[in-house]
Protein backbone atom coordinates (compact mmCIF):
# COMPACT_ATOMS: atom_id res chain seq x y z
CA UNK A 1 0.00 0.00 0.00
CA UNK A 2 2.81 2.31 0.92
CA UNK A 3 4.59 1.56 -2.33
CA UNK A 4 1.49 2.32 -4.40
CA UNK A 5 1.02 5.63 -2.62
CA UNK A 6 4.55 6.60 -3.73
CA UNK A 7 4.60 5.06 -7.20
CA UNK A 8 1.27 6.39 -8.45
CA UNK A 9 2.08 10.10 -7.85
CA UNK A 10 5.54 9.55 -9.33
CA UNK A 11 4.09 7.97 -12.49
CA UNK A 12 1.49 10.73 -12.73
CA UNK A 13 4.21 13.37 -12.51
CA UNK A 14 6.37 11.56 -15.08
CA UNK A 15 3.49 11.24 -17.55
CA UNK A 16 2.60 14.92 -17.04
CA UNK A 17 6.17 15.98 -17.79
CA UNK A 18 6.26 13.85 -20.94
CA UNK A 19 2.95 15.30 -22.15
CA UNK A 20 4.18 18.83 -21.44
CA UNK A 21 7.40 18.20 -23.38
CA UNK A 22 5.46 16.87 -26.37
CA UNK A 23 2.56 19.30 -26.43
CA UNK A 24 4.04 22.28 -24.59
CA UNK A 25 5.29 24.16 -27.65
CA UNK A 26 1.92 23.79 -29.38
CA UNK A 27 0.09 24.99 -26.28
CA UNK A 28 2.38 27.87 -25.37
CA UNK A 29 3.04 29.21 -28.87
CA UNK A 30 0.22 31.15 -30.58
CA UNK A 31 -1.88 29.02 -32.87
CA UNK A 32 -1.27 29.71 -36.53
CA UNK A 33 -4.08 31.34 -38.45
CA UNK A 34 -5.25 28.95 -41.14
CA UNK A 35 -6.23 30.19 -44.58
CA UNK A 36 -9.86 29.25 -45.07
CA UNK A 37 -11.27 27.89 -48.32
CA UNK A 38 -13.46 31.00 -48.88
CA UNK A 39 -10.43 33.27 -48.37
CA UNK A 40 -8.35 31.17 -50.75
CA UNK A 41 -11.09 31.23 -53.42
CA UNK A 42 -11.53 34.97 -52.96
CA UNK A 43 -7.81 35.53 -53.55
CA UNK A 44 -7.80 33.22 -56.58
CA UNK A 45 -10.66 35.20 -58.09
CA UNK A 46 -8.68 38.42 -57.58
CA UNK A 47 -5.55 36.88 -59.12
CA UNK A 48 -7.47 35.61 -62.16
CA UNK A 49 -8.92 39.10 -62.74
CA UNK A 50 -5.49 40.70 -62.56
CA UNK A 51 -3.95 38.12 -64.90
CA UNK A 52 -6.80 38.39 -67.41
CA UNK A 53 -6.72 42.20 -67.36
CA UNK A 54 -3.02 42.19 -68.23
CA UNK A 55 -3.83 41.20 -71.82
CA UNK A 56 -6.84 43.49 -72.19
CA UNK A 57 -5.71 46.80 -70.68
CA UNK A 58 -6.50 49.60 -73.17
CA UNK A 59 -4.07 52.41 -73.88
CA UNK A 60 -5.74 54.89 -71.55
CA UNK A 61 -5.79 58.37 -73.17
CA UNK A 62 -6.00 60.19 -69.83
CA UNK A 63 -2.50 59.13 -68.76
CA UNK A 64 0.13 61.80 -68.94
CA UNK A 65 2.57 61.16 -71.79
CA UNK A 66 6.35 61.13 -71.70
CA UNK A 67 8.21 61.62 -74.97
CA UNK A 68 11.42 59.63 -75.42
CA UNK A 69 13.01 60.36 -78.82
CA UNK A 70 10.38 59.68 -81.45
CA UNK A 71 8.30 57.41 -79.22
CA UNK A 72 5.53 58.52 -76.89
CA UNK A 73 4.83 56.31 -73.88
CA UNK A 74 2.95 56.54 -70.62
CA UNK A 75 5.28 57.39 -67.74
CA UNK A 76 5.89 54.28 -65.65
CA UNK A 77 4.67 54.40 -62.06
CA UNK A 78 5.90 52.90 -58.82
CA UNK A 79 3.32 51.09 -56.69
CA UNK A 80 4.12 51.56 -52.99
CA UNK A 81 2.48 48.72 -51.05
CA UNK A 82 2.35 49.14 -47.27
CA UNK A 83 1.87 45.96 -45.22
CA UNK A 84 0.83 46.76 -41.66
CA UNK A 85 -0.82 45.39 -38.52
CA UNK A 86 -0.71 48.70 -36.65
CA UNK A 87 -0.94 52.43 -37.28
CA UNK A 88 1.42 53.79 -39.93
CA UNK A 89 3.49 55.65 -37.35
CA UNK A 90 5.81 57.10 -39.97
CA UNK A 91 3.12 58.34 -42.38
CA UNK A 92 4.22 62.01 -41.82
CA UNK A 93 7.67 61.15 -43.19
CA UNK A 94 6.19 59.29 -46.12
CA UNK A 95 3.77 62.19 -46.71
CA UNK A 96 6.80 64.44 -47.08
CA UNK A 97 8.42 61.83 -49.33
CA UNK A 98 5.47 62.08 -51.74
CA UNK A 99 4.31 65.63 -51.13
CA UNK A 100 7.15 67.73 -49.70
CA UNK A 101 8.21 71.26 -50.55
CA UNK A 102 8.26 70.16 -54.20
CA UNK A 103 5.20 67.90 -54.62
CA UNK A 104 5.80 64.75 -56.65
CA UNK A 105 3.82 64.31 -59.86
CA UNK A 106 0.89 62.04 -58.82
CA UNK A 107 1.13 60.39 -62.24
CA UNK A 108 4.35 58.73 -61.10
CA UNK A 109 3.15 56.65 -58.16
CA UNK A 110 0.27 54.81 -56.51
CA UNK A 111 -0.20 53.79 -52.87
CA UNK A 112 -1.87 50.62 -51.56
CA UNK A 113 -2.28 49.66 -47.90
CA UNK A 114 -3.03 46.18 -46.53
CA UNK A 115 -4.03 46.60 -42.87
CA UNK A 116 -4.93 43.64 -40.67
CA UNK A 117 -8.73 44.02 -40.22
CA UNK A 118 -8.55 42.66 -36.66
CA UNK A 119 -6.51 45.74 -35.65
CA UNK A 120 -8.05 49.19 -35.32
CA UNK A 121 -6.09 51.55 -37.59
CA UNK A 122 -6.31 55.32 -37.15
CA UNK A 123 -7.72 57.22 -40.15
CA UNK A 124 -5.10 58.45 -42.61
CA UNK A 125 -5.21 61.67 -44.58
CA UNK A 126 -3.20 63.26 -47.38
CA UNK A 127 -1.71 60.85 -49.93
CA UNK A 128 -2.76 57.87 -47.76
CA UNK A 129 -6.48 58.69 -47.70
CA UNK A 130 -8.68 55.96 -49.23
CA UNK A 131 -5.67 53.81 -50.14
CA UNK A 132 -6.71 50.71 -48.17
CA UNK A 133 -7.37 47.51 -50.13
CA UNK A 134 -9.71 44.70 -48.93
CA UNK A 135 -7.55 42.88 -46.38
CA UNK A 136 -7.50 39.72 -44.32
CA UNK A 137 -5.84 38.81 -41.03
CA UNK A 138 -2.08 38.33 -40.89
CA UNK A 139 0.16 36.57 -38.40
CA UNK A 140 3.87 36.14 -37.98
CA UNK A 141 5.26 32.68 -38.79
CA UNK A 142 2.31 31.89 -41.03
CA UNK A 143 1.62 31.96 -44.79
CA UNK A 144 -0.90 34.77 -44.25
CA UNK A 145 1.95 37.25 -44.81
CA UNK A 146 2.58 35.72 -48.23
CA UNK A 147 -1.13 36.02 -49.02
CA UNK A 148 -1.18 39.68 -47.98
CA UNK A 149 1.78 40.52 -50.22
CA UNK A 150 0.25 38.65 -53.17
CA UNK A 151 -3.04 40.44 -52.54
CA UNK A 152 -1.28 43.80 -52.67
CA UNK A 153 0.48 42.84 -55.90
CA UNK A 154 -2.77 41.72 -57.54
CA UNK A 155 -4.63 44.90 -56.58
CA UNK A 156 -1.79 47.08 -57.84
CA UNK A 157 -1.54 45.12 -61.11
CA UNK A 158 -5.28 45.33 -61.67
CA UNK A 159 -5.62 48.95 -60.61
CA UNK A 160 -3.21 50.62 -63.02
CA UNK A 161 -1.41 49.24 -66.10
CA UNK A 162 1.20 51.98 -65.67
CA UNK A 163 2.46 50.45 -62.41
CA UNK A 164 5.89 49.16 -63.44
CA UNK A 165 7.60 48.59 -60.10
CA UNK A 166 6.03 47.24 -56.91
CA UNK A 167 7.71 48.15 -53.61
CA UNK A 168 6.61 46.27 -50.48
CA UNK A 169 7.03 48.51 -47.43
CA UNK A 170 6.89 47.71 -43.69
CA UNK A 171 5.06 49.90 -41.17
CA UNK A 172 8.44 50.25 -39.39
CA UNK A 173 10.16 51.42 -42.57
CA UNK A 174 11.43 54.90 -43.50
CA UNK A 175 12.78 56.27 -46.80
CA UNK A 176 16.49 57.13 -46.98
CA UNK A 177 16.28 59.27 -50.14
CA UNK A 178 13.81 61.54 -51.89
CA UNK A 179 11.13 60.19 -54.20
CA UNK A 180 12.86 61.63 -57.28
CA UNK A 181 16.13 59.94 -56.34
CA UNK A 182 14.37 56.58 -55.95
CA UNK A 183 12.31 56.99 -59.13
CA UNK A 184 15.32 57.93 -61.24
CA UNK A 185 17.29 55.02 -59.81
CA UNK A 186 14.59 52.50 -60.77
CA UNK A 187 13.41 54.01 -64.02
CA UNK A 188 16.30 55.74 -65.74
CA UNK A 189 15.05 57.36 -68.96
CA UNK A 190 18.23 56.21 -70.73
CA UNK A 191 17.26 52.61 -69.99
CA UNK A 192 13.74 53.29 -71.24
CA UNK A 193 14.98 54.78 -74.50
CA UNK A 194 17.19 51.72 -75.07
CA UNK A 195 14.39 49.35 -74.03
CA UNK A 196 16.64 47.64 -71.50
CA UNK A 197 15.29 44.98 -69.17
CA UNK A 198 14.69 46.12 -65.61
CA UNK A 199 15.70 43.87 -62.69
CA UNK A 200 13.79 43.06 -59.51
CA UNK A 201 15.45 43.96 -56.22
CA UNK A 202 14.88 41.01 -53.92
CA UNK A 203 17.32 39.31 -51.58
CA UNK A 204 18.05 35.71 -52.59
CA UNK A 205 20.43 33.76 -50.34
CA UNK A 206 21.21 30.05 -50.14
CA UNK A 207 23.41 30.10 -47.06
CA UNK A 208 22.03 30.19 -43.52
CA UNK A 209 22.76 28.17 -40.39
CA UNK A 210 19.03 27.55 -39.96
CA UNK A 211 18.18 26.86 -43.61
CA UNK A 212 17.62 23.11 -43.16
CA UNK A 213 15.40 23.66 -40.10
CA UNK A 214 13.38 26.19 -42.04
CA UNK A 215 13.13 23.84 -45.03
CA UNK A 216 11.71 21.12 -42.77
CA UNK A 217 9.50 23.44 -40.70
CA UNK A 218 6.35 21.87 -42.20
CA UNK A 219 7.70 18.34 -41.94
CA UNK A 220 10.84 16.56 -43.10
CA UNK A 221 11.23 16.78 -46.88
CA UNK A 222 7.59 17.85 -47.22
CA UNK A 223 8.62 20.55 -49.74
CA UNK A 224 9.67 17.89 -52.25
CA UNK A 225 9.35 17.27 -55.13
CA UNK A 226 8.29 20.84 -56.00
CA UNK A 227 11.14 22.42 -54.02
CA UNK A 228 14.36 20.51 -53.47
CA UNK A 229 16.55 21.64 -50.59
CA UNK A 230 19.19 23.07 -52.95
CA UNK A 231 16.44 25.22 -54.52
CA UNK A 232 15.19 26.55 -51.18
CA UNK A 233 16.25 30.18 -50.60
CA UNK A 234 16.02 32.79 -47.89
CA UNK A 235 15.75 36.54 -48.21
CA UNK A 236 14.25 39.75 -46.91
CA UNK A 237 10.48 39.94 -46.59
CA UNK A 238 10.50 43.34 -48.32
CA UNK A 239 11.26 43.70 -52.02
CA UNK A 240 10.89 45.84 -55.15
CA UNK A 241 9.56 43.73 -58.04
CA UNK A 242 9.00 44.45 -61.72
CA UNK A 243 5.57 43.97 -63.27
CA UNK A 244 6.83 40.82 -65.00
CA UNK A 245 7.87 39.22 -61.70
CA UNK A 246 4.76 40.43 -59.88
CA UNK A 247 2.68 38.54 -62.44
CA UNK A 248 4.84 35.44 -61.89
CA UNK A 249 4.02 35.63 -58.19
CA UNK A 250 0.24 35.80 -58.55
CA UNK A 251 0.23 33.16 -61.30
CA UNK A 252 2.02 30.63 -59.12
CA UNK A 253 0.03 27.69 -57.79
CA UNK A 254 2.66 24.93 -57.53
CA UNK A 255 4.92 26.42 -54.85
CA UNK A 256 2.04 28.07 -53.02
CA UNK A 257 0.50 24.64 -52.34
CA UNK A 258 3.64 23.81 -50.36
CA UNK A 259 4.26 27.13 -48.64
CA UNK A 260 0.66 27.52 -47.47
CA UNK A 261 0.92 24.38 -45.32
CA UNK A 262 0.92 24.87 -41.55
CA UNK A 263 4.32 24.68 -39.88
CA UNK A 264 5.00 22.02 -37.26
CA UNK A 265 8.08 23.83 -36.00
CA UNK A 266 6.81 27.40 -35.59
CA UNK A 267 10.16 28.68 -34.32
CA UNK A 268 11.74 27.90 -37.71
CA UNK A 269 8.78 29.05 -39.77
CA UNK A 270 9.17 32.28 -41.75
CA UNK A 271 7.26 31.57 -44.99
CA UNK A 272 7.38 35.13 -46.35
CA UNK A 273 11.21 35.11 -46.16
CA UNK A 274 11.38 31.99 -48.35
CA UNK A 275 8.46 31.91 -50.76
CA UNK A 276 9.33 34.96 -52.88
CA UNK A 277 13.11 34.41 -53.19
CA UNK A 278 12.62 30.67 -53.84
CA UNK A 279 9.95 31.22 -56.49
CA UNK A 280 11.82 33.94 -58.40
CA UNK A 281 15.13 32.12 -58.09
CA UNK A 282 13.53 29.08 -59.72
CA UNK A 283 11.59 31.04 -62.36
CA UNK A 284 13.98 33.83 -63.38
CA UNK A 285 17.24 33.96 -61.37
CA UNK A 286 18.99 36.22 -63.89
CA UNK A 287 16.19 38.77 -63.73
CA UNK A 288 16.81 39.53 -60.04
CA UNK A 289 19.64 41.44 -58.40
CA UNK A 290 19.54 39.00 -55.44
CA UNK A 291 19.79 41.84 -52.92
CA UNK A 292 17.23 44.07 -51.26
CA UNK A 293 16.96 47.87 -51.26
CA UNK A 294 15.79 47.84 -47.61
CA UNK A 295 18.52 48.00 -44.97
CA UNK A 296 17.89 45.77 -41.96
CA UNK A 297 20.27 45.39 -39.02
CA UNK A 298 20.49 41.74 -37.91
CA UNK A 299 23.54 42.13 -35.68
CA UNK A 300 21.56 41.83 -32.44
CA UNK A 301 18.43 39.96 -33.45
CA UNK A 302 15.93 39.21 -30.68
CA UNK A 303 13.32 36.44 -31.09
CA UNK A 304 13.71 36.59 -34.86
CA UNK A 305 13.27 40.37 -34.99
CA UNK A 306 16.00 42.69 -36.32
CA UNK A 307 17.56 45.50 -34.33
CA UNK A 308 15.08 48.28 -33.53
CA UNK A 309 16.45 51.81 -33.65
CA UNK A 310 15.48 54.17 -30.81
CA UNK A 311 15.61 57.99 -30.58
CA UNK A 312 19.04 57.99 -28.90
CA UNK A 313 20.48 56.32 -32.03
CA UNK A 314 18.86 58.65 -34.58
CA UNK A 315 21.33 61.07 -36.16
CA UNK A 316 22.38 62.35 -39.56
CA UNK A 317 25.31 59.92 -39.45
CA UNK A 318 22.90 57.01 -38.94
CA UNK A 319 21.05 57.96 -42.15
CA UNK A 320 24.34 58.17 -44.06
CA UNK A 321 25.44 54.81 -42.67
CA UNK A 322 22.11 53.16 -43.48
CA UNK A 323 22.41 54.25 -47.11
CA UNK A 324 25.68 52.38 -47.58
CA UNK A 325 25.44 48.91 -49.09
CA UNK A 326 27.79 46.18 -50.29
CA UNK A 327 26.52 46.62 -53.83
CA UNK A 328 27.09 49.53 -56.21
CA UNK A 329 23.71 50.94 -55.23
CA UNK A 330 22.55 52.81 -52.18
CA UNK A 331 19.90 51.45 -49.83
CA UNK A 332 16.60 53.24 -50.41
CA UNK A 333 14.72 52.28 -47.23
CA UNK A 334 15.55 51.16 -43.70
CA UNK A 335 13.86 49.31 -40.85
CA UNK A 336 13.07 48.96 -38.13
CA UNK A 337 12.40 52.10 -36.06
CA UNK A 338 10.46 52.49 -32.83
CA UNK A 339 7.45 54.87 -33.06
CA UNK A 340 9.14 57.45 -30.81
CA UNK A 341 11.79 57.98 -33.50
CA UNK A 342 9.28 60.01 -35.52
CA UNK A 343 10.14 63.44 -34.08
CA UNK A 344 13.94 63.23 -34.35
CA UNK A 345 13.56 61.87 -37.89
CA UNK A 346 11.17 64.67 -38.84
CA UNK A 347 13.72 67.21 -37.63
CA UNK A 348 16.20 66.06 -40.26
CA UNK A 349 13.83 65.50 -43.19
CA UNK A 350 14.93 68.41 -45.35
CA UNK A 351 18.53 68.70 -44.17
CA UNK A 352 19.45 65.01 -44.39
CA UNK A 353 16.89 62.38 -45.44
CA UNK A 354 15.57 64.09 -48.57
CA UNK A 355 18.73 66.00 -49.39
CA UNK A 356 20.33 63.69 -51.95
UniProtKB/TrEMBL annotation:
Pfam families: Branch. It is found in: Membrane. It comes from the Eukaryota. GO terms for molecular function: glycosyltransferase activity. The keyword Glycosyltransferase applies. InterPro entries: BC10-like, Glyco_trans_14. The keyword Glycoprotein applies. It is a single-pass type II membrane protein. One of its GO terms (cellular component) is membrane. Its main location: membrane. PANTHER family: CORE-2/I-BRANCHING BETA-1,6-N-ACETYLGLUCOSAMINYLTRANSFERASE FAMILY PROTEIN-RELATED (PTHR31042), DUF4005 DOMAIN-CONTAINING PROTEIN (PTHR31042:SF63). This is Glycosyltransferase. It comes from Solanum tuberosum. The lineage of its organism: Eukaryota, Viridiplantae, Streptophyta, Embryophyta, Tracheophyta.
Amino acid sequence: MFRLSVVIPFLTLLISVLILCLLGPKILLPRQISISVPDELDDLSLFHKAIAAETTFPKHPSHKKLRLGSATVRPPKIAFMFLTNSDLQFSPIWEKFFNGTKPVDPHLYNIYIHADPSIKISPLMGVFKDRFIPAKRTQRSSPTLISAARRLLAHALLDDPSNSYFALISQHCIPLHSFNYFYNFLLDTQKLSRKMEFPSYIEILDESDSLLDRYNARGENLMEPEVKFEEFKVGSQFFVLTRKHSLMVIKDRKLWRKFRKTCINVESCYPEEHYFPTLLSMEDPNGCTKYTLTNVNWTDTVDGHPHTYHPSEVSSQLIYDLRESNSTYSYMFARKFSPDCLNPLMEMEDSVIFKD
